[in-house]
């Protein structure tokens, strides 16, 4: 059984105090995260250390960066490195969220470098991909996400690819209130798994957690997560409301 994951993406929201209160509140309501499940909070960079302290030694709960740079250190003003996040006890990072791709021009090739630096430093990449509405309407979504996989991940060894968490996020469903139907999400996530299997074999592909992201809410989480190739969710808006995110954690299989 693959790890089933509820991952919060706070994006550029909340003050430190609000973030601490939210995290403490969620953890007090979701006191233990069971074996085979993981709960991840991708928090703004200035809060990584404080968030990590709140999590303490809780099992299966992790703090994640929302982004890292492709170099370990150096003259890269404003960037965040794997060494920096590790120095505050953080071993996960989102990589390639569509907002990074769209607003900051991050290409598949550049994201491959970020994946490499993460894996070389024992940081788990939560690698995001997904198509725009235009691509979906042209019917080319499978081709598009296949290229994202190939150009950013297919250079990895079989051992490395099993350390990556993948998050499929159709851009047209992000923060828009439109969710892909569970059938639409399952169809493309099944395709992603088949494409991974064509490169790495079924046994490896079967070990990789593929999350769905895009307007996941308490009301749709159960149905989405019950699909065979959906191993949990990457949650933006609903992760900012304690009761909603707790309900989403509870919806994991
Ligand atoms: C997609 C998702 C979290 P939301 O960006 O990464 O956000 O749940 O608000 O659509």
Automatic annotation (TrEMBL):
Gene3D superfamilies: Aldolase class I
Annotated compartments: Cytoplasm
Cellular component aspect of the GO annotation: cytosol
Keywords: Cytoplasm, Gluconeogenesis, Glycolysis, Isomerase
CDD domains given in the database record: TIM (cd00311)
Active-site annotation: 97, 169
Entry-linked InterPro entries: Aldolase_TIM (IPR013785), TIM_sf (IPR035990), TrioseP_Isoase_bac/euk (IPR022896), Triosephosphate_isomerase (IPR000652), Triosephosphate_isomerase_AS (IPR020861)
Reaction equations catalysed: D-glyceraldehyde 3-phosphate = dihydroxyacetone phosphate
Binding site for substrate: 9-11, 175, 215, 236-237
Involved pathway(s): Carbohydrate biosynthesis; gluconeogenesis; Carbohydrate degradation; glycolysis; D-glyceraldehyde 3-phosphate from glycerone phosphate: step 1/1
PANTHER family per record: TRIOSEPHOSPHATE ISOMERASE
NCBIfam families: tim
Family named by the database record: Belongs to the triosephosphate isomerase family.
Quaternary structure annotation from Swiss-Prot or TrEMBL: Homodimer.
The name this protein goes by in its record: Triosephosphate isomerase
UniProt gene name: tpiA
């Amino acid at each position: 059984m693959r790890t089933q994951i509820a991952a919060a993406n706070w994006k550029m929201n909340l003050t430190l105090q609000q973030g601490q209160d939210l995290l403490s509140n969620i953890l007090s309501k979701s006191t233990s995260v069971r074996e085979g499940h993981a709960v991840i909070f991708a928090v703004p960079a200035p809060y990584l250390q404080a968030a990590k302290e709140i999590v303490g030694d809780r099992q299966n709960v992790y703090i994640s960066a929302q982004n890292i740079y492709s170099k370990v250190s150096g003259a890269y003003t404003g960037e965040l490195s794997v060494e920096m996040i590790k120095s505050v006890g953080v071993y996960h990072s989102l990589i390639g969220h569509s907002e990074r791709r769209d607003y900051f021009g991050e290409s598949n090739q550049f994201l491959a470098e970020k994946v490499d630096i993460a894996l070389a430093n024992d940081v788990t990449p939560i690698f995001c991909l997904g198509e725009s509405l235009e691509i979906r309407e042209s019917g080319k979504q499978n081709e598009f996400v296949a290229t994202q996989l190939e150009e950013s991940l297919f250079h990895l060894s079989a051992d490395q690819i099993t350390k990556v968490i993948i998050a499929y996020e159709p851009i047209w469903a992000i923060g828009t209130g439109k969710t892909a139907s569970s059938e639409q999400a399952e169809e493309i996530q099944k395709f992603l798994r088949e494409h991974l299997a064509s490169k790495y074999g079924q046994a490896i592909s079967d070990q990789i957690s593929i999350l769905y992201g895009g307007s996941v809410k308490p009301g749709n989480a159960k149905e989405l997560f019950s699909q065979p190739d959906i191993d949990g969710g990457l949650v933006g808006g609903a992760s900012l409301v304690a009761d909603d995110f707790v309900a989403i954690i509870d919806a994991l299989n």
